[in-house]
Amino acid sequence: MLWMVLLAAVLLLAYANGANDNFKGVATLFGTGATDYRRALAVATVSTGLGSLAALVLARGLLTAFSGKGLVPGAVLADPIFLPAVGLAAAATVLLATRLGLPISTTHSLVGALVGAGWAAAGAVSVATLGKVFLVPLLVSPVVSLAAAAVIYPTLRWLRVRLHVDRETCLCVGERVEVVAVDGGRGATTAVRSAGIKMIVGDRERCFERYSGTIAGVEAQGALDRVHYASAAAVGFARGLNDTPKIAALLLGVSALVPSYGIIAVAVVMALGGLISARRVAETMSHRITTMNHGQGFTANMVTAFLVIVASRWGVPVSTTHVSCGALFGIGTVTGNARWRTIASIAMAWVTTLPLAAALAAGAFVLLSRLA
Questions:
Q1: Which of 117, 128, 238, 298 has a beta carbon 3.0–4.6 Å from 228's, enabling a disulfide?
Q2: What is the pTM (predicted TM-score) of this model?
């Protein structure tokens, strides 16, 4: 009976993870107008699925880390109620955040749930393991990604200027894209450069930016579009590689289930969660943290993919959410376009994720103990 509860909890968590996390890699594609929501979602689904399959080989260390070994006593791990309580609590936490459109960390939710259920079962957890293995990477990773994006983007911008690649502001007029000169912000007078015609644009965001010029004989905007797509796919791959084994680790409690089958099942349900329920978090990540152009989106993706892939390879449990949001925070800080009210809401959600998941896991453990 309890193994069925565990299986249902893990699959529910996988669905919630897909809904909250799958779009994070391609948020810059949607946010910059490089593509529409459906195409961005397709890139996210395919790249995340490939990362999940790669986890079969490259991310075994995360399976061990998130099984709870070393964090709670062995006797607690042997308790058939422990892992179902963890899965149910983590799933409930991520589903609530998804409903509110807030990008939170499944990693953080799992850590909180492991602590809460472990405390309810044994009255204690290993504080040393909690700090060293889990909390330090979770706290440091967004700071590192913010700093990296804040340094790398100005460097790439300087390089672009040195290569004589200019940034143009454009507006769609009928079926044509015209380069325009914008005077001011919202409701500004906009002049079409080719004809000198002036018009009123009600919202500055109806215009978009693109790059003119060539690099080594290659058209700059076309080259950037390609590497932007590649960087988004790299983030999706990194997320699948990092998150799938963390969730599948809970299935180690089902002794009859081969770990590779667990990873495949989690990957499939994660994809469904992203396809069906990703829209709310997609809007937050794409449009509410900061405005961005193609170069800024590419920079954020490049930083995120590199940090998450390296962490996954070495079994370090960083959060893709924290890393990707940290990179966007860094871009917004440098450009002056950060929307601090949204960022504050996300930060508050991060602060409350662990204690909420811990409380829910403790409650789930007590409830399941009485029902068992």
A1: 298
A2: 0.80
